[in-house]
Amino acid sequence: MMRAETILRTFLFLSLIVFSCSSPVKTSGDRFAHADIAGDMAAAMLKSAPDSAFSIIRSARSSETDSTVIRYLDALSSKFHYLRYEDDSCKALTSSVSEWFSRQSEPDPDMWYVYGLSSNIRGVCLQTENALDESEACFRDAVVGMERGGRGRWLPDIYVNLSNVLLHKGDFASAAHAAGRALQCADSLGFGGPMHSINVALAEIYARMANYTKAEWYFGQAIEKYPPSSDYETFYLYNALCNCYYLQGRYDEALPAARNAYSAVLKTGQRPSLAIVEANLGDIFTRTGQLDSALIWLDRSSEWFRQPGADDAALFYLNGLYASLCLQKGDVAGARRYLSVPYDEKRVGPNYLYEHYRRLSEYYRRSGDWHRALYYADKERAIDDSLRNLKHLNNVAEMSARYTRDTTLMHQSAELAENRATIRSQRLIIILTVVALALSLCLFAATHALLRRRRERQRKEEQHQIMQLRLQSARRLLSPHLLFNALNAVAPKDSTVSDHLVNIARYSVMMLDKNMVPLGDELQMSREYVSLRRALHPDDPEVLWEVEISLDLGTPVPSLCIQSHLENALKYAEASEISVCVSRIGGALVVSVKDDGAGYLNTVSRPGQGTGKGIQTMSRTIALLNESRKNKMTYEILSEAGKPGTEVRIVIPDEDKDNNNR
């Protein structure tokens, strides 16, 4: 099964997701507060608008004077580069952070934290390149950085990464020790987030040591006690479980696990992960004699792994699967074609070489070349003996470590036995106390578990309510703010202004508690606002309206999606011309507000540029609406650092009537 280098990036991508989704640890004075805001904005835009995401980080970096915060932004940027498969940029940034840290004579805790964060990201990047020794050193540096930086909550995730690199180095005992440290840190911190990944890591370690009973126990923990919380975790869990069954030759049980992994990975949109599962399915179908199905799945996997720049080990593995399929079909010539593809033994693990020599032996046996068949059979046995010996040594090392712990406990028990003579009279009291304490602990544990589940339900309900309250509050801040400014600026005797004010007030009341309003109402509200502004400020720039005549004005759009951005452009953009364009492109309504002003990224940090509540409100509104939409809306602010002009674009895909009425 594909369980070595080719699944590293998927596993480590998941590790980074887990690592970055945890709430950031704030320091006194919120030293990283502004950097975290920039990082959150960039992360939200990384997939849809990567150039804008990196521009946000660069803009935040250029306005920062604290060198520690600057390097923190570099570490965040390196993570984004890694997630976009830009490994060279990732390594360059983490190297610059390491050089900066080495120049600090007395680093403070925040500096240690930044160094630990950067070292973890660099370790992940190096591991995907099979630089396992360097990767291990980086993870150990990350542990030291987080400990001295006072960020112990990151340690479980880093120890899981360290366990994974030790596993791929074949040091199973040390891998188990690192996973145990992750478990110990999570328990001591009361932090249950990484418990699922820790149990999966331990299961993989014991599966590789052929201790399948213990491996399946940890898989059971990961499925039942600490179930996966995301599609990525579900995929990785069942892919690892499939490998465990495969190693035991239990192909009928490996197949459902592989199908569960396939269903989960489809939801993630990660094509490399999908190709891994497709290859595994092809291998299982070959082993079970379902050759037509095997060819279908291998061809699907091949579409990805035969692209330029693909991983050498993955191609070697895939060619081996095709060779096995050909041998099963009796196509000896086809098997030779796949087995003769050149490969680098340094890039191929011993498990892959074992399978390769086994196929070569079978090929030459079928070709009648018994001399070569025997030669490769001997090489196959040599690797098999080496692997068995390695598993034996690692099991011995793991048993030795366990024996050391057990011996310590035995010595402690002996010391307790020697002291029992002096406390015989208190035995009954001690027993009763222990029993009472045990009952109390059981009651406490049950109550704690019940309260934790209840708090989790309440937390989800409160999050939804808070989102609604924030949206309503922000909307109340926007509309009355406009009206009171206008009332203070002009005399009520001005009938033109009064008419506009009455119309705007009417629309504000109508839209106050609505997240979606008809397009016609939003356009009319926005035109009234522009007319009011021109009456109050004759020097305001001209607003050009480009609205397709054929549009259905009853189409629902997010409330204030045009007016709030028009207000920002008129107040802050320093523009000479503003345009509003509403059109239909394909199956979506596209709303665009564009100006030729100074540019959002160039002015966002200037004094007097507003609080940003309009943008925050719109972003939260769309996020809330997308929860119940099948076709998600998108919200982009298009601006380039150093260049004039800004465009706000909202794309509203069509929904069926049932969804529109929610």
Mean pLDDT: 79
Give me the side-by-side strand order of the main sheet: 2-4-5-7-6
Biggest sheet: strands, sense, closure?
A: 5 strands, mixed
Q: Which CATH class of the domain at 466-660 is shown?
A: Alpha Beta
Question: What is the tally of beta strands?
Answer: 7
Walk me through what this model shows.
The chain is of the alpha+beta class and 662 residues long. The protein has 26 helices and 7 strands. A 5-stranded mixed β-sheet has the order 2-4-5-7-6, covered by helices on one side. Strands 1-3 form a two-stranded antiparallel sheet. A hairpin with a 2-residue loop joins strand 4 and strand 5. Helix 16 runs antiparallel to helix 17. The N terminus and C terminus are likely disordered.
Secondary structure: elements and pairs:
Elements: H1 8-21, H2 33-45, H3 50-62, H4 67-83, H5 87-102, H6 109-128, H7 132-148, H8 155-168, H9 172-189, H10 195-208, H11 212-225, H12 231-247, H13 251-268, H14 271-287, H15 291-305, H16 312-329, H17 332-339, H18 350-367, H19 370-419, H20 427-489, H21 495-511, E1 516-518, H22 519-536, E2 542-547, E3 556-558, H23 563-572, E4 577-585, E5 588-595, H24 600-603, H25 613-626, E6 634-638, E7 646-653, H26 657-660
